[in-house]
Write a structure and sequence with these properties.
Structural class: alpha/beta
Oligomer: single chain
Strand content: 15-25%
Radius of gyration: 24 Å
Number of helices: 6
Distance between the termini: 68 Å
């Protein structure tokens, strides 16, 4: 059998390249665009922090995701027993204060996989000035695919998930969040 000459080899490689490249661009161009996933709905009780007369926290009114639509929202899943969550708390607190206490972005903490007795007496609760909800069994965290604490989910004003961050927020992740803030 005769070996193909150099020109035939180049021509065959060029044709293969064009077929593969053309197929790639055809699939990219004609495939439906990636749709943002709608955030799972929830309704959870608000944790009312203790005060001088009653140092223990209590459960207050229920807050639903539906109430937050129309605003850029950051949901942070954490627990009173989680040391990484405690390390991340000042970052979230600074973000909350920097962007106007919910005026430009709404920050919502969800205490998850936590015991009420631990959370209600936790000094970590007092360090948070943004609203905290209570999800003791972690049902909402599981709906959002949370596998590690802390976890932070960024939602657009239509309630669609823009980004999911598992683990402590770092500078790169903060830049992604801040780029979405009007």
């Amino acid at each position: 059998m005769k070996r193909p000459d150099k020109r035939q080899t180049i021509l065959i490689n060029l044709i293969l390249f064009l077929v593969v490249t053309g197929g790639y661009f055809a699939v990219r161009h004609f495939s439906p665009r990636h749709e943002l996933k709608t955030a799972p709905s929830f309704e959870l009780p608000l944790v009312e922090p203790g005060n001088d007369t009653n140092p223990m926290a209590s459960l207050g009114t229920r807050i639903s995701l539906k109430e937050l639509q129309g605003r850029l929202t950051l949901i942070n899943f954490w627990a009173s027993w989680c040391e990484a969550c405690a390390q991340e708390a000042p970052i979230l607190e600074n973000l909350w204060k920097k962007y106007g206490n919910g005026q430009r972005i709404y920050l919502l903490g969800i205490s998850t996989f936590d015991k009420w007795s631990d959370l209600s007496a936790s000094p970590k609760l007092a360090t948070k000035s943004f609203p905290i909800l209570f999800d003791d069994k972690g049902r909402i965290a599981l709906k959002y695919g949370v596998t590690v604490l802390p976890a932070t989910i960024l939602l657009n004003s239509q309630g669609r998930i823009l980004a999911t961050f598992q683990g402590i927020l770092n500078e790169e992740r903060l830049r992604v969040i801040e780029a979405q803030i009007p």
